[in-house]
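In this supplementary section we document a worked example of the pipeline. Step one takes a protein sequence of length 158 as its only input; no multiple sequence alignment statistics are reported here. Step two produces a three-dimensional model, which step three serialises into structure tokens for compact storage. The input and output of this example are shown verbatim.
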Amino acid sequence: MKPPKIVIVCGAAYVSGKEIVSLHLARALRDAGCSVEFVTSQWHDGEFVRRLEAAGLPHCSLRIGFMSMTLKWRPLRATLVQFMYLPALVLQYCRLIRRSAPDAIVHTNWHHALLLMPFLKPSRDVFWLHEMAPRRRRFARLYQAIARRTARIICVSR
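The serialised model returned by step three reads:
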């Protein structure tokens, strides 16, 4: 029997709690006999990639970045840049899925889950929520949309 293949989408612009916990998850899955691969963003400081390589965890970088739900200039500019790279992201992600044929994909960021929404499948994808969800109607709609396209939303704490 072949080991389950799991892809973890963790952008990791910089290393913080989400990235550290994702590394722990990947090591535990690998130790349990799973095949684990990371998807990171091409926009990063390099530290997370160094940690992946030190742990012997395969990874690939895609043009997956930031989406904003605010109309302030800096976040809006980052969203516009992401939209410029959306065709490249779609092509790269589809190639990755075809190549790796994962049994499960773990998404760790709502920005990335939103960008990849058309490709999420409830039979394969889960969303691992690390942030506190703001009590705003737009975030409720966002998480409802992610919930419809994934098997479940898993919260790391209360």
